[in-house]
Amino acid sequence: MDNFQTVLRFFMNQKATIGYSFMALLTIGGERIFSMVSFQCPCNLNQNFAYGITFLLGPAVVLLFLGLFFSTRLWRLYTGCCLNPMKLCPRGNCFGCLRVLMSIFTGACVAPIMWLCVALLNGTFYECAVSGLNNNVVVDLFCKNKTMKCREELAHVPCDRSKLSNDERLDLLLMFRAQSQILGWSLIILSALVGLLGTCCTNCRSKVSYLQLTFWKRYMEKEKERFDSFSVEYANKLAERNLQSFFENKNAAPFPFPNHKAWEEISAYYTFSQSEQYYSTLQRYVEKTDREFHPEKRPVLDSDYGIEMS
């Protein structure tokens, strides 16, 4: 039993690494499926570039949008900001808000960068895209020291119907593949360098020590886990109380519930301050001495959520 708990604890501590590894495997599998099943280069001078660049960048853009869509930190900042723009910059800290937005965007870029790296290392999409370029400088670079037929048949190189000799076609394909892989490795090195420098800069500017920062991260993880489970349990109790009151046709028993202002305070994005020994907006709220315990006198959700305004 102790060995099982040790293994479980190890996987829980490494869940970020496991998550990124799983994402990388999905990216590689998705790229192979696109390359083998749906991608067929038209081998047409007017279509190659648009077709190849769409398969190269299109999934990356979709993954970026999905990363932003599923970011709870983004929605925590954005929800309600149209009615109260100050929610984006609590306490007027615009620099902190921009830093958080940059962190959210950086996290959403992980999957798109993985896709671009895998796609460039494979080279299939890049070959199709660059073979459709009609720029004289690019064509001169590809067809240097080759016959005029190379210029005419460049768009047909990714396909088997090219009129070039096998050696010429193979040379061009190897050139395209080498360029694509160089771009792929350059993107990997650049991403790793930016990630390292960003981590170093963040840790260097940290207001707390490494161990306290580690504890803060652990606390935030546990608070989120407990909040999810506790909110489900509490919602079940509230639903059961309301249904029981409705079906038994009797007054509902008193049920303690946070008011709207309390929800607003704990939903704000919290940044650590040395003057406050709090690790989240929830902890800061529960340790306040002037908390308001009275419930809301009117509903605050609109009809889009199934609740009418009073």
SSE layout and pairings?
Elements (H helix, E strand, L loop, with lengths): L1 H12 L1 H24 L9 H22 L2 H7 L15 H15 L1 H13 L1 H7 L5 H7 L5 H6 L12 H39 L5 H38 L12 H8 L13 H6 L24
Helix pairs in contact: 2-6, 3-5, 3-6, 3-7, 6-10, 7-10
Give the gist of this structure:
By secondary structure, the chain is mainly alpha-helical. The protein has helices at residues 2-13, 15-38, 48-69, 72-78, 94-108, 110-122, 124-130, 136-142, 148-153, 166-204, 210-247, 260-267, 281-286.
Give an overview in words:
The chain is mainly alpha-helical and 310 residues long. The protein has 2 domains: 1-205, no CATH class; 210-287, no CATH class. It has 13 helices and no strands. Belongs to the CALHM family. This is Calcium homeostasis modulator family member 5, tandem duplicate 1. One of its GO terms (molecular function) is monoatomic cation channel activity. The chain crosses the membrane at residues 18-37, 49-70, 100-121, 182-201.
